[in-house]
Amino acid sequence: MTTSCSFSVEIFPVGTAEGYARLAANVARLVVLGTEFVSVTYGAGGCTRAASLAALRLVRDAGGVAVPHVSAAGARHEDVRSLLRDYEALDVARLVVLRGDPSSGLPGRGAFSYAAELVRFIRAETGSRFHIDVAAYPETHPQARSADDDLAHFKAKLDAGANSAITQYFFNADAYEDFLERCAAKGIFVPVVPGVMPVAGFARLVRFSEAHGIEIPAWIRRRVAAYGDDASSIRAFGLEVVRRLCERLLALGAPGLHFFCLNDAQRVADVVAGLRTAAPTGRPPREP
Asked: Does the residue 2 lie in any domain?
């Protein structure tokens, strides 16, 4: 990877002064690293609205490009209109529009069942004011009836007005290559940026991945198990796995990388440093 390769980062809002101070330090470091933009997550039904807006301002004030998420889950038309006014006031130019996870505390409240409906509404309200990213799932959304059904939902979001996509994270580059091939077969050629989860703690990663239908290859699980409680070795191995994955994705023509950093700039810094110094072989780690 050259220093000109594009990458972006996702962060989540925090609710305490101490957490905000830590986030500010991490955002400042991400901006210095050269991230194209920093996206900020948004809770269902607006449950993190104030904290999300604060995080967006934090990114902007640090000199970065702030990109808010807009979630369909639990949202009403007037909620979205109000949000869009806030984002226009912040001079936001790009949105990440998602269905989001429905909140159990908001039964039947939302006006949108799918992200495509929300994309269509935003376009009707604002025209071409915003560049819109939507989600894509190379390993198929866990709630989809089939891979073809999932691809149809993806196409519906693009037909509604989305410009590009960011994928859920994965560890199998072949899944990304296959997804692009299936998109091309349907005449879909928008930029699809792969989402990447830098590995630090493995137990948490496994729990989150299993909950979201993300496959962690058996050979990775075996290697990690062999390290036992050696946290430093696990972290070093995880970094190498992710670096090689990124190299392969870039070799496949990925237009950039989007890191889910869990508010930890060091995770991104480690991967980016490795990519900028390693010879770009495009080969993933070999299974032992």
From this structure: no
Task: Please give the pLDDT value at position 286.
Answer: 40
Domain that holds residue 78: 7-277
Cα diameter, the chain: 55
Instruction: Report if residue 282 sits inside a domain.
Output: no
222: in domain: yes
User: Does residue 50 have a pLDDT over 80?
Assistant: yes
Instruction: Spot the catalytic one: 10, 117, 125, 240.
Output: 10
Distance CA 229, CA 126 (A): 52
Report the length, in residues, of the chain. 288
CATH number, position 75: 3.20.20.220
- Let me know if 10 is a catalytic residue: yes
pLDDT band per the 50, 70, 90 thresholds, residue 285: very low
Per the structure, how many domains does the chain have? 1
Model pTM above 0.85: yes
- Do residues 234 and 202 make contact, with C-beta atoms less than 8 angstroms apart? yes
Answer whether residue 238 is part of any domain.
yes
